[in-house]
């Protein structure tokens, strides 16, 4: 009986094995829930598996004084279908990545310069945060609200990796105040007063 179960387990596991070595993203083709369609193997080159953009500092001259340089499937076709990707995070003094989520991936952050305060909120509303220094690593579970901010007086740099080629992104502040979400609904659902909502919409470009 045991050898029959073992045989079935082998058949089941092998049926889910990939029949392709890779699936380099065809950026001209359609994109679906599983990612981009595959580029024809004859058109794949070594360049598809190399991304050089993470060596260049991002522009932090903006409202949040921060920049994220992604190396997701749309920028780095070779990671399509592999369940991995990376990004560069630049934080000027007082820079912040506001509360946000990645619906499709967990994240690991490694600090390579400066100091960063980072944390996340669990589904039980427990807050986990830590001041990180050069060489420290922190993980952020998939789908949970999290943040990073520069906790020092000089620029900070970190690299992040994701468990998806396209982790997705939703920034809480922009979701609430950078669109036409009616102010009265925001006030009812967040307990903010009208003046606060209008002020934040003015800053982030929202209407309504």
UniProtKB/TrEMBL annotation:
<dbReference type="InterPro" id="IPR019780">
    <property type="entry name" value="Germin_Mn-BS"/>
</dbReference>
<keyword id="KW-0464">Manganese</keyword>
<comment type="similarity">
    <text>Belongs to the germin family.</text>
</comment>
<feature type="binding site">
    <location>
        <position position="107"/>
    </location>
    <ligand>
        <name>oxalate</name>
    </ligand>
</feature>
<keyword id="KW-0052">Apoplast</keyword>
<keyword id="KW-1015">Disulfide bond</keyword>
<feature type="binding site">
    <location>
        <position position="102"/>
    </location>
    <ligand>
        <name>oxalate</name>
    </ligand>
</feature>
<dbReference type="GO" id="GO:0030145">
    <property type="term" value="F:manganese ion binding"/>
</dbReference>
<dbReference type="InterPro" id="IPR006045">
    <property type="entry name" value="Cupin_1"/>
</dbReference>
<dbReference type="Pfam" id="PF00190">
    <property type="entry name" value="Cupin_1"/>
</dbReference>
<keyword id="KW-0732">Signal</keyword>
<feature type="binding site">
    <location>
        <position position="107"/>
    </location>
    <ligand>
        <name>Mn(2+)</name>
    </ligand>
</feature>
<dbReference type="GO" id="GO:0048046">
    <property type="term" value="C:apoplast"/>
</dbReference>
<feature type="binding site">
    <location>
        <position position="100"/>
    </location>
    <ligand>
        <name>Mn(2+)</name>
    </ligand>
</feature>
<dbReference type="InterPro" id="IPR001929">
    <property type="entry name" value="Germin"/>
</dbReference>
<dbReference type="InterPro" id="IPR014710">
    <property type="entry name" value="RmlC-like_jellyroll"/>
</dbReference>
<feature type="binding site">
    <location>
        <position position="102"/>
    </location>
    <ligand>
        <name>Mn(2+)</name>
    </ligand>
</feature>
<dbReference type="InterPro" id="IPR011051">
    <property type="entry name" value="RmlC_Cupin_sf"/>
</dbReference>
<keyword id="KW-0479">Metal-binding</keyword>
<protein>
    <recommendedName>
        <fullName>Germin-like protein</fullName>
    </recommendedName>
</protein>
<keyword id="KW-0964">Secreted</keyword>
<feature type="binding site">
    <location>
        <position position="146"/>
    </location>
    <ligand>
        <name>Mn(2+)</name>
    </ligand>
</feature>
<feature type="signal peptide">
    <location>
        <begin position="1"/>
        <end position="17"/>
    </location>
</feature>
<feature type="domain" description="Cupin type-1">
    <location>
        <begin position="52"/>
        <end position="198"/>
    </location>
</feature>
<feature type="disulfide bond">
    <location>
        <begin position="23"/>
        <end position="38"/>
    </location>
</feature>
């Amino acid at each position: 009986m045991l050898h029959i179960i073992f045989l079935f387990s082998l058949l089941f596991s092998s049926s889910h094995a990939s029949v392709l070595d890779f699936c380099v993203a065809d950026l001209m083709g359609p994109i679906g829930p599983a990612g981009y369609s595959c580029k024809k193997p004859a058109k794949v080159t070594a360049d598809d598996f190399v991304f050089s953009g993470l060596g260049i500092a991002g522009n932090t001259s903006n409202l949040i004084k921060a920049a994220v340089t992604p190396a997701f499937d749309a920028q780095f076709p070779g990671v399509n279908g592999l369940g991995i990707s990376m990004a560069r995070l630049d934080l000027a003094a007082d820079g912040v990545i506001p509360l946000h989520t990645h619906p499709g991936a967990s994240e690991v952050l490694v600090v390579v310069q400066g100091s960063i305060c980072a944390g996340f909120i669990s589904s039980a509303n427990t807050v986990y945060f830590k001041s990180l220094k050069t060489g420290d690593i922190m993980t952020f579970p998939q789908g949970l609200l999290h943040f990073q901010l520069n906790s020092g007086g000089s620029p900070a740099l970190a690299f992040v990796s994701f468990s998806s080629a396209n982790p997705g992104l939703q920034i809480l502040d922009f979701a609430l105040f950078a669109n036409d979400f009616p102010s009265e609904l925001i006030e009812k659902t967040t307990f903010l007063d009208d003046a606060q909502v209008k002020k934040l919409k003015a800053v982030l470009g929202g209407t309504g």
